[in-house]
Amino acid sequence: MKPKIRIKICCISSIEEAQLAIKYGASAIGLVSAMPSGPGVISEDVITKIAEGTPPGISTFLLTSKTSTKEIIEQQKRVKANTIQIVDRIEEGSYIDFRNELPGIKIVQVIHVTGKESVEEAVAAAQHVDAILLDSGNQNLEVKELGGTGRVHDWKLSREIVSKCPVPVFLAGGLNPENIQSAIKEVQPFGVDICSGVRTNRKLDEAKLSKFISNAS
Predict the structure, then answer these.
(1) How many of the other CB atoms lie within 10 Å of CB of 181?
(2) Which residue pairs, CB below 8 angstroms and at least 24 apart, start in 21-25?
(3) How far apart are CA 109 and CA 127, in angstroms?
(4) Rounded Cα–Cα distance for residues 113 and 116 (Å)
(5) Whole-angstrom Cα distance, residue 3 to residue 22?
(6) Which band of pLDDT confidence, cut at 50, 70 and 90, is reported for residue 35?
(7) 82-118 pLDDT, tens per residue?
(8) Cα–Cα distance between 93 and 28 in angstroms, integer?
(9) Could you read off the pLDDT of 150-198 as tens digits, one per residue?
(10) What does the mean pLDDT of the chain come to?
(11) Strand stretches in the chain, DSSP E
């Protein structure tokens, strides 16, 4: 049964994991490039192979911690993912650079929901990107947390962001088969995103994956 909500399975590490996620109904997969912390990092060579081996119609998200649009553009051109997930704030360049250099490539900005200021940040970013993804990282730590924390953030703030943003919003952060129904009901996101909640010993767990997607549908 096709899920009613868009489901992104993140931290994909191989073509086999991508195929398994897609088999159960994922419409997007996350491919994690170099990060200061967190799980799921794979090499750009592996990202390229998975992106090339993913069937049309499935979104391949390149997760990048780079903060320069020039470097992000160069990275996308190397790995050929069809979507860029920016997990930190852009410090050099502007979103218009992506439109000029990467026509047809979707841009998703991650907002780490830490407080009311995150609502304003999300609404501002939404004017320039194709989607927003809400996560539970912390960019202010000495070693930045930019995803894969397994923590739930304040869903009331997430719901406020969904209601105020003019673009689709994905919800991530501490989701699992047991809480996904509550998360969808409270936040009403366009899509949901999960990494550790469907893994056992860092490997994609078919039973957890099946239960998560069934409960989200």
Answers:
(1) 12
(2) 21/204, 21/209, 22/54, 22/55, 22/58, 24/206, 24/209, 24/210, 24/213, 25/1, 25/213, 25/217
(3) 11
(4) 8
(5) 11
(6) confident
(7) 999 999 999 999 999 999 999 999 999 999 998 899 9
(8) 27
(9) 678 899 999 999 999 999 999 999 999 999 999 999 999 999 999 999 9
(10) 92
(11) 6-9, 28-32, 59-64, 83-86, 106-112, 131-135, 169-171, 191-194, 199-200, 203-204
Q: Which domains are present in the chain? A: 6-216 (3.20.20.70)
Q: Is 72 exposed, middle or buried (0-12, 13-18, 19+ CB in 10 A)?
A: buried
Distance of alpha carbon 47 from alpha carbon 81, whole angstroms:
8
Q: Which amino acid belongs to residue 61?
A: F
Whole-model pTM?
0.93
Strands 203-204 and 199-200, sheet pairing: antiparallel
Which of the 8 DSSP states describes residue 55?
P
Tokens of 123: 């609404």
Amino acid identity for residue 133 in this structure: L
Kindly state the tokens that stand for 182. 């509550």
What band does 2 get if pLDDT is binned at 50, 70 and 90? very low
Q: At 117, list the tokens.
A: 């200021």
Contact 200, 208 (CB under 8 A): yes
